[in-house]
Every structure is written in structure tokens, then in C-alpha cells.
Amino acid sequence: xxxxxxxxxxxxxxxxxxxxxxxxxxxxxxxxxxxxxxxxxxxxxxxxxxxxxxxxxxxxxxxxxxxxxxxxxxxxxxxxxxxxxxxxxxxxxxxxxxxxxxxxxxxxxxxxxxxxxxxxxxxxxxxxxxxxxxxxxxxxxxxxxxxxxxxxxxxxxxxxxxxxxxxxxxxxxxxxxxxxxxxxxxxxxxxxxxxxxxxxxxxxxxxxxxxxxxxxxxxxxxxxxxxxxxxxxxxxxxx
Length: 239
Description:
239 residues, Vanadium-containing Chloroperoxidase, domain 1, mainly alpha
């Protein structure tokens, strides 16, 4: 059971943001969020312990997925795993939408990603949960390049839901489709056996909380309003 190419101007906006000399960027400190906004001890329950009954149920799910996934499932899941930015929503938004056409929106999504990544790093360090392939080396995971104790919460899932929350606010008519895409993107981490079920559930909750906290932040809202005006002027999906 599932839970629920930037180029040209858009890429330039993201790269300009990422390459800025801001000391906060270099240290991985959020640009907008305060520690209380993403405190993992307050927002997330602890994950199941290795080899606990709950963990064994999660492991059984991964083995079942390994038996049922198709080559097409694997190809799509691997592609999702390698695409850690807002372009995952371009096809969902449709109507020829690309971030390349909307530099203010691309910048806003880069800001969301910066803050959620800082939050996720804090949470992963706090919980230090083992990756599935550490607990069971027989799992055929898409990759084993992640840190062994970095499973909880899922960073990909946190990213997809934090972005989906902000994009849903910008494009209310697309909210259900955006959240469904975030859910599908998260499920790819199960297909790839990079995460346990509880990691995905925690990423959904964490990403949603981060997205909401950003939307409530006055400094973030200033950039949000610029992106909203950009979308209203050029794209019907924002209406």
C-alpha cells in the first residue's frame, strides 16, 4: 500500500541561489525556519527498533515489493531517486509547465529545498535509523551509497511533500494532483528498498509540517508572493 529538466532561466535561478555566498547556506542552516519549526523530537515519533516486530513487518513488505516490482517500476523509481528537485512536479502541473519559464517559482522551490534539507539532516542525525539493506543485506536496493544510519525520515519524501504543500498553495486547482505525485514519488523509495514504511510516513508528516511552517513565515511569504504573481500572469494552473 502506498501513502499519499530545469534549464535556461529556471536553472539559472536555482544555481544562482545555490551558489550564493551566504554563510547560512554553507553551514546548512535554514534560511527561514527556526529550530522549533522542525524539531524532530517534537514532530516525529521514534522509528521501530531494528528487528522489532514492527520492523519485521516493514521488512516483509520490502521483500514482497522485491518479488512484485517490474523492470518498469524499477526504472521509474531509480529516476525519481536521482531527481531531487521540483522538476518532479512539471508533468503533473502540465500545460507545458517548466520551471525554466518561471524563475521566481524556481527560486522559491530552491528555498523550500534548502530549508527542508537542513531539517532532514537534523532529524536523521537525531534518530540514526539503519537503512533496510543494513538490517538485511539480501535486499536488492537501487543504491547503497547513503549513510547506513540515515533512514528516518525519508529525505526524498520530506522534499516532495514540503514542495507539494507550497505548490498546492500557489496552484489550488492542482493540489490533489500535486499531493498524489508527492505520494507516488515517496513510494519509489519503497520500490527501491531505500527506506522502511515508517520512514515514508515520517517524511510525509515532516514535509507537510515544514511546508506549512514556511507558508507562515513572513520572509518566505515575500518570495512566495513574487512567485504567485509570476504564475498568475502566465499560467492558468495557478488560478
